[in-house]
Amino acid sequence: MANEWIDVGPASAVTQTASLTAEVDGYEIVIVRCGGQLHAVENRCTHDGESLSGAEVEDCEIICPRHFARFDLRTGEALTPPAYEPIKTFNVREQDGRILVEKPD
After folding, report:
1. Torsions phi, psi for 24 (to 5 deg)
2. 64-89 pLDDT, tens per residue?
3. Minimal CA–CA distance to 23: which of 105, 91, 89, 103?
4. Burial class for 103, CB neighbours closer than 10 Å (0-12, 13-18, 19+)
5. How far is CA 22 from the centre of its chain?
6. Cβ neighbours, 10 Å, residue 49
7. What is the pTM of this model?
8. What is the C-alpha end-to-end distance of the chain, expressed in Å?
9. For the range 50-56, what are the long-range contacts, defined as Cβ-Cβ under 8 Å and sequence gap of 24 or more?
10. Among 64, 45, 47, which residue's Cα sits nearest to residue 56?
11. Cβ count within 10 A of residue 88
12. Residue 25 to residue 35: CA distance in whole angstroms
């Protein structure tokens, strides 16, 4: 079965300082740029469920605005306490000026 990609918005909506939030197959996700590359992760800190929408991104890490837990955008790995569980990552790509996120299995 072919992978299904879902259009979540214009690529111009995601800059080095602006993120995009979307829902994909029941998951709320946040899409950010780091070094020109798009990353899509679940929009909740695994420590206490805080939204990561609008969170600061530094060195390809997203920083929870509530307790400052850091997550690797490439792998979802929790890098600092108080979070210990990873966040879910999603395949994302830019095509024809649009952002597409792969529907999870």
Report:
1. -130, 110
2. 999 999 999 999 999 999 999 999 99
3. 103
4. middle
5. 10
6. 9
7. 0.93
8. 11
9. 52/87, 53/19, 53/21, 54/19, 55/19, 55/30
10. 64
11. 14
12. 27
Which one-letter amino acid corresponds to residue 56?
Answer: E
Superfamily of domain 19-93: Rieske [2Fe-2S] iron-sulphur domain (2.102.10.10)
With tokens 């850091």, the residue in question is: 70
Side-chain-facing half-sphere of 37: CA atoms under 13 Å: 9
Domains of the chain by residue range = 19-93
Nearest Cα to 88, choosing from 103, 67, 98? 103
* The pair of three-digit structure tokens given for residue 30, joined into one six-digit string: 């946040």
Please say whether the beta carbons of 86 and 46 come within 8 A.
Answer: yes
Tokens of 14: 């995601």
Parallel, antiparallel or unpaired: strands 5-10 and 20-24? unpaired
> Residues in the chain with pLDDT < 50?
none
